[in-house]
Amino acid sequence: MVETFRDAWKVPEIRKKLLFTLLMLVVYRLGSHIPVPFMNPQAIKQIFQQQQGGILSFLDLMSGGNFSTFSVFAANIYPYITASIILQLLTMAIPSLEALSKEGETGRKKIAKYTRYLAVVLAAVQAFGYTFGFYRQAVNTTNQFQNVIIILSVTAGTMFLVWLGEQITEKGIGNGISLIIFAGIVARFPGDIYRSFVMAAQGAASWAWVIVFMILIVAIILIVVALNEGVRKINVQYAKRVVGRKMYGGQNTHIPVKVLMSGVMPIIFAQTIMSIPQLYVMFAGRENGFSRFLLNWFTPEGNGGLVIYSVLMMLLIVFFSFFYTAIQFNTVEYAKSLQQNGGFIPGIRAGRKTSEFLQRTVNRLVLPGGLVLGFLAVLPAILEKFSGMKFSFGGTSIIIVVGVVLETARVLEQQLMMRHYKGFLK
After folding, report:
1. Nearest 5°: phi and psi at 246?
2. What per-residue confidence (pLDDT) applies to 62?
3. Which band of pLDDT confidence, cut at 50, 70 and 90, is reported for residue 72?
4. Alpha-carbon dihedral of residues 48, 50, 53, 56, nearest 10 degrees?
């Protein structure tokens, strides 16, 4: 991977893309220091410190500290991710959207437009909940217009990040949305590591648990790398056929089916959904009975809630692993493409039997991969409950960081390979 980055830096065209990506991430980090107007920063800090934990720590980690300071990027890019989930689910349920998704580039652009419109609505709702739910005591407004300015500031910050991510994807290297989340997580690592060691030095936490979490981080990194690099190669042969005076086909190749074809997206989707109960509590307050019920049974704060939260989190990660893989790897279309081009899997009849074989193979890979991914995501939360020590850069954040780094390195390898082919063709 290091060699890939080094070789890519030597290529002027790819180096420009890397510099553009870094510049956009710097813009993101600079924008993180722009406060939302008409909000009291001292009150925000005090409120966050009093109720820190659970979804609040996760939101702050994933937003790169923007939530605890309530900057214009406080909602981060998650309203857009939620909108993407909703549109993808609706695409499978509504025939008109499904037909639109099959219209090629034009259809994808229309769905992307609908996703952005929905993201604006969700960002405004989330900004309202943050401002007048959780941070309502920090609001320094005298009229409704100022309240609207607060909501518009947070909503505009989210949509600016959506635009920034699209620019990175189009003109830079890697997936822009994933890289923005990656930058927010990595920005918190040094401070979190330092605080963990300070807590242990002051006796507020056990050194044994610090060592356990460090070993856990290394283990998670190794397992995630193994899952990301794991591939099942399905042999494919192409029948010989004569067209005019030339003979085509006859070669052997393979279909690479990855264990984690969906990457880190299932965790992001699952965490977004599992944050809904705690977001409701933030908006409605902890005083009413329904909020206490949600906190006790659907968040890690309660003993019963930790079990239910962990089980639901794992199930959602497995579900989105299958869902996202089905979107990326359509076995029916793949089988049709093989049949049309004279390709077949040895021992498997072309057409429907090939599609069923590919689906069985994918299911056997996705299920264990999703279960392991889910277990790694919830394990740190369980250990935090028993150790009493907050270790925010474990579990989900490590999986996302490692996944994004591997995905970006893979994109660089593809860019280098394309460049070599271009040179050969010239």
Report:
1. -110, 150
2. 65
3. very high
4. -20
Can you tell me the mean pLDDT for 34-56? 80
Both tokens of 75, joined, read 């909602």
The whole-number pLDDT of residue 373 equals 85
> Using an 8 Å Cβ cutoff, are 72 and 154 in contact?
yes
Q: What's the burial of 266, exposed, middle or buried (CB within 10 Å: 0-12/13-18/19+)?
A: buried
pTM of the predicted model as reported, rounded to 2 decimal places:
0.77
Candidates 45, 80, 272; CA nearest to 163 is: 80
| Residue 339 contacts residue 351 (beta carbons within 8 Å) | yes
Q: How confident is the model at residue 389 (pLDDT cuts 50, 70, 90)?
A: low
Q: What are phi and psi of 133, to 5 degrees?
A: -105, -75
Structure tokens at 394: 């474990």
Asked if residue 274 lies in contact with residue 235, where contact means CB atoms within 8 angstroms, the answer is no
How far from the centroid of its chain's Cα atoms is residue 341's Cα? 35
Is residue 385 scored above 80 in pLDDT?
no
Give the length of the chain. Answer: 426
Question: For residue 256, what are the β-bridge partners?
Answer: 233
Angle between helices 289-297 and 276-284 (to 10 degrees): 150
The answer to whether residue 235 scores a pLDDT higher than 70 is yes
- The first and second tokens of residue 385, run together, are 């409950």
Q: How large is the average pLDDT for residues 216-236?
A: 84
145: three-class secondary structure by DSSP: helix
Nearest to 405 by CA among 174, 167, 165, 59: 174
- Encoded amino acid at 230, one letter: G
Instruction: Please tell me the distance from the alpha carbon of residue 88 to that of residue 363, in angstroms, as a whole number.
Output: 20
Lowest mean pLDDT among 24-28, 36-40, 112-116, 384-388: 384-388
For residues 359-381, give the mean pLDDT: 87
Contact yes or no for 51/45 (Cβ under 8 A): no
Q: For residues 104 and 88, what is the distance between their CA atoms, to the nearest angstrom?
A: 15
Kindly calculate the radius of gyration of the chain based on its CA atoms and give it in whole angstroms.
Answer: 24
Phi, psi of 235 (to 5 degrees): -65, 140
Please name the residue ranges forming H helices in 76-143. Answer: 78-93, 95-101, 105-129
Do 272 and 82 contact (CB within 8 A), yes or no? yes
